[in-house]
Amino acid sequence: MAGGTSNAKGGAFEFTVSSPERCAVRGALTFATARRARTLGLNAQRAAAKSFVIDCGEIRQADSAGLAVLLDWLAEARRAGKALHFERLPDDLLRLARISSVDGMLQQGV
Question: Which CATH superfamily does the domain covering 2-108 fall into?
């Protein structure tokens, strides 16, 4: 199991890799944690299988920077020719995505 934790003002962010096909995120995915979250996610993608899932059910706080991280992970997966899907996206994060008309992209994945 690999992953990491980022502690910042506003809460901690954890990224846990449970297998080459599955990861989970937990905590705050906000401006304060976005840079570290992005790095953890991209590192996990490099080691991941061709198709993988990120469980987002334990994201407790998210803002536009957190949304940008998720979109960046999707873009990187697409560039690498990998399939990425998010599970259990929190309603508040989907509402934020809907404002920018990217909610379908998050729900569909690549």
Answer: STAS domain (3.30.750.24)
Residues 29-70: tens digit of each pLDDT: 999 999 999 999 999 888 888 999 999 999 999 999 999 999
Q: From the CB of residue 3, how many other CB atoms can be counted at a distance below 10 Å?
A: 17
Cα end-to-end distance, the chain, whole Å: 24
pLDDT digits (tens, 9 = 90+) for 88-109: 999 989 999 999 899 888 888 8
How far is CA 79 from each of CA 73, 74, 84, rounded to the nearest angstrom?
A: 10, 9, 11
